[in-house]
Amino acid sequence: MPPYNARSPQNRSKTHRAVLIGVDCYTHEADLPAVARSLRLMAEALTAEGTGVMAPGELVVLPGPTDSGPGTVDPLEAVRALRDAREQVDGLLVVYFAGHGVVRADGKDLHLLFSPSRVIADPHRPFVDALSWRDHVMAELRLAQADWVVVVLDCCFAGNARQDFHPEERQNFALLMAAEQNVEIPPGDAATGTHFTVGLHRLLTGRTWASKPATFTRLVGEIREVMAQLKAVHDHRWIPGERRHGDDVLLAIPGRRHRREHRPSEPAGSASGAGRPALASAGGDGAVETPGRSGEAEAEYGAEVEYAAKAGPVHPARAVGATPRRRPSSRRYRALCAALALACLAGAGVLLSLDGGPDRGCAPPLELRVLVDPDIRPTVQKAADTYLDRSTGDCRAVGISVYTGSSTDVVDALQAAPLWQAPPASCPPSGDCLLPQRDLGAQPDVWIPAATVTSLRVLAEQSAAARTVAKLDSLGSVAYTPMVLAVPADAGRKPGPADRPAPLADLVAGVRDGGTDGPEPYQVLRPDPEGGDGALLSTTALYGTDARRPTDVEAALTDDRLPPQPTARDLMCGLADGSRNALEDRAAVLIPEQTMALFNLSSASGEAGAVGRPACASDVLEHRAARYPTDVPVLDLPFFRVTWAGADRDATARGQAVRDFYDWLATDPEAGAVFVRDGFRTGPSGKPSLPSAASPLTAKANEGAVSLLLPPSNPPTSASEVTEALRDYRQALGPGRVLYLLDDSTSMEDNRVWLGPGRAKDLVARSTAPIGPEDTLGVWGLSPGTAANHTELVPFGSAGPDPGRARTAVGRASAVNKNARVLDGLRDGLSELRSGSEGPVPRLLVLVTDDEDSADLQGEDVLALVGTATEGAPVRVVTVSLRGGGCAPELLNHRLAEATGGRCLDASDDLATELTAEVAKTGTGDAR
Questions:
Q1: 883-887 LR contacts (CB < 8 Å, sep 24+)
Q2: pLDDT for 460-496, tens place per residue?
Q3: 3-state SS of 34-72?
Q4: Chain centroid offset of residue 374 CA
């Protein structure tokens, strides 16, 4: 689906609005003079001639124009502006806030401070005359009628807003945050503005005709690149955050090639001296036609500009800028410009063709789609950005989109490549079907897995039809990194045999054996083997050839304090988030060497290599040493060109672009430097070289922690071994036990979440697809029965369930005119799952509810239930809230899921997909 465009013909008649709030003047806090400048920049960015998506009359700006000096903003005035917008706007709604942001001591409940705001010593209500992002701003915007809501927060702790980002189920909502969670940002400069907004202004107003449109998703990547050059407070890396619920939205359009540019230091309409200058009008003179446009594109563009000029002021009392001058119609305007141009040319005795010459507009660049392993995506993205930033003339010839998906999904998709071009007309009711376009994205031109054996898995089971549709050509490796067991370096153990290269099973056994008088054994952790190649290859080595080993291995690697993470970086960040300190201290992790090397870097070291330290790293994670397994192949990042049948239109140019990109990655020193800085080893294809001085592997923080010379390893793992290991992993813990608790009270019908696609009964029915014949399944209704706190829609306790029969039973269920006994049902469900089974059996309890019968639960009841859920045999709890905000941190749903290593899903998630994925972690029906 194309991105939402407020200026397209189908949307131009709708009401669009931008509510821009800039608080530069405070009574009780330090003033922020740069905010006044940022407010003008943001207004200009949204209304700039040729690129803006708003007309000046569509802006509501707080504070409004003042005669001179700073203005004040009252929080009630801001609430009124938000409420008016959410009731009146049916098109694009943009909300921008710049000012002070504060959070509670635990980092929760972001508040936006206004002119009269105060921070007091009241632990229950520390922020006076401020607006809570969760309770005020998000609560209003969740009710917005707009096609799209976009929020931009330029304040300290902006990243903490992601904790309470809970749009309605069908709402299109995007949130751009100035920095990551718990990060403060500098105040900026009064003359230029706040750094984040200055960067946004440059990106939004600097689009040329050759630029890509500024969609929200593209803008996120661009602003992160801009801010990476700066540091936040306390020397934090400056990484803007984002959350998005919906497809995509256009925030600026490519400008006309000859439009007059405004320098950021001199926004249109500004005047020297004090006060708040008005913005430039949407119209303007001096623009000429851009050659090289198709008639259709030119007509639409002209219509869009005319629309921007004609849109009158919506709220004249608070709108910024004068009423725009009406420009001539698009056709008359072009004719006038052409006549003037010909007159000037004739007078000078010069004849030029308007259709040619060096001033011709740039053609759209050829887009290469690069699909990569999740663990290597950050580095490949940096390399692609560097490649595109090379100086190659006025017009960019190629663009590169880097994207990723789980390793197992990619293998499945390439083995069934025809589904990429011709997906099935429909999926079964369970939704369990292979759809590469949905699950991964567009057909790749380039595929870079982490290990060569992954490509062998594709070829080993690729059908003849798939080989005809998608051809893989290996061009060589681009970088290398071995898998290591990263062990805390300050363990107090004396060096022993386990410190030397050995089979992975021996290394793991060594760190798990604390001895009778030795320190406590380590907990060994590993990313999800279905996520990346490195984790799956490590799992293959651990399983070996012993049929009993998968069950023992998975029982030893399971820790309910930290559920499986998709990538090595996610695993390390999960350990560092502050809620698992005991596990962080005692965790030995199976990760790529380059990941460990980056996390070892000290933020206070001052080393040149320390710039690569991940933002989530902690001091504890800095101290880990690598132990090298001899039976896990080195990750060699092979580069494959993917050629698709029928894609002949630009095959030659595309093939050359792929070859050029590979040649640059493999041979150019600038490309090698990108991989070296991220801890990878480079060298001739198949032969990694010793790390250079620029590598974090040679940094002081990694002295003694890594081996500069790679230890020898056994012959590479075969494709069949990896495939068998994946099958064994999916079945390792044996049959699972899954019990659904379905809120069947009449409020579910009243709230329209009971019947229909994506609603309660449909979610339960579809998510049973991963239940296998050896699993145990049950579905309880939470309305009380004659002799229990629930009714048995599908009785629990017998193996060999039939998901089809269960779906039929759920489909026949009716809502009951009784209150749901949520608390009692959860207690009974936990007891039922634990009865009759011992050992590491996967147990999953799924609660599907509208929260109406649990909203008033007392704090002591919630605490008691959380205690019950975490005592005894492990049971993972997944809660599904069918209302917005149901996963707020203080609510039962979130606390129960977090305490048990489960998940809380609400309307901001893709409920059908995510719930089915959670059930698949327990059920064995999809093990293959």
A1: 883/751, 883/753, 883/850, 883/851, 883/907, 884/142, 884/166, 884/167, 884/168, 884/169, 884/908, 885/134, 885/138, 885/139, 885/142, 885/164, 885/166, 886/166, 886/851, 887/166
A2: 988 888 899 999 999 999 999 999 999 987 544 444 4
A3: HHHHHHHHHHHHHHCCCCCCCCHHHEEEECCCCCCCCCC
A4: 12
3-state helix, strand, coil in the chain (%, to 5): 35, 15, 50
* pLDDT the model gives residue 520: 66
What is the average pLDDT across 188-211? 86
Q: Three-state secondary structure along 579-636?
A: CCHHHHHHEEEEEEHHHHHHHHCCCCCCCHHHHHCCCCCCCHHHCEEEECECCCCCEC
pLDDT of 838: 62
Q: To the nearest whole number, what is the mean pLDDT of the chain?
A: 79
Cβ contacts of 656 within 8 Å, gap of 6 or more: none
d(CA 539, CA 522): 18
Consecutive H or E run containing 295: helix 295-310
pLDDT tens digits for range 817-833: 888 889 999 999 999 99
Question: What confidence score (pLDDT) does residue 340 get?
Answer: 33
Sign of CA dihedral 864, 866, 867, 868: positive
- Alpha-carbon distance of 116 to 848, in angstroms, equals 43
Contact criterion met (CB below 8 Å) for 503 and 629: yes
Residue 475 and residue 631 in contact, taking contact as beta carbons nearer than 8 Å: no
Measure the CA–CA gap between 183 and 672, rounded to whole angstroms.
Answer: 31
Query: Tokens in use for 475?
Result: 């061009």
Distances (CA, A) of 736 to 110, 916, 918: 40, 14, 12
The yes-or-no verdict on residue 238 having pLDDT over 70 is: yes
Of residues 665, 646, 657, the one with CA closest to residue 369? 657
Residue 512 confidence (pLDDT) above 90: no
H/E stretch holding 201: helix 195-205
Pairing of strands 903-905, 876-881: parallel
Angstrom distance (rounded) from CA 123 to CA 491 = 39
Question: Using H for helix, E for strand and C for coil, what is the string for 519-578?
Answer: CCCCEEECCCCCCCHHHHHHHHHHHCCCCCHHHHHHHHHCCCCCCCCCCHHHHHHHHCCC
Contacts of 600 (CB under 8 A, 6+ apart): 621, 622, 623, 624, 696, 699, 701, 702, 705
Asked if residues 678 and 672 have their Cβ atoms less than 8 Å apart, the reply is no
Distances in whole angstroms, Cα of residue 432 to Cα of each of 292, 485, 687, 914, 925: 46, 35, 42, 12, 11
pLDDT, tens only, 877-893: 999 998 877 888 778 89
> Quick one: DSSP state of residue 20?
E
Crossing angle of helices 669-677/377-388, nearest 10°?
150
Retrieve residue 893's tokens. 């749903």
**What gap in Å lies between CA 223 and CA 218, rounded to an integer?**
9
Evaluated on CA atoms 335, 341, 345, 346, the torsion sign reads positive
Sequence letter at residue 27: T
Q: What is the distance between the alpha carbons of residues 908 and 887, in angstroms, rounded to a whole number?
A: 10
d(Cα 368, Cα 445) in Å, to the nearest integer? 6
Alpha helices, H only, 418-548: 418-421, 436-439, 452-460, 464-469, 504-512, 533-543
Interatomic CA distance for residues 331 and 816, integer angstroms: 65
523-525 vs 470-477, strand pairing mode? unpaired
State in Å, rounded, how far the first CA of the chain is from the last one.
33
Instruction: Kindly state the tokens that stand for 593.
Output: 């060497």
Distance CA 512, CA 520 (A): 8
Any idea which of 148-152, 429-433, 470-474 has the lowest mean pLDDT?
A: 429-433
**Residue recorded with tokens 């939402």:** 4
pLDDT at 818: 86
359 has a pLDDT exceeding 50: no
User: Among the listed ranges 2-6, 251-255, 299-303, 673-677, which one has the minimum average pLDDT value?
Assistant: 299-303
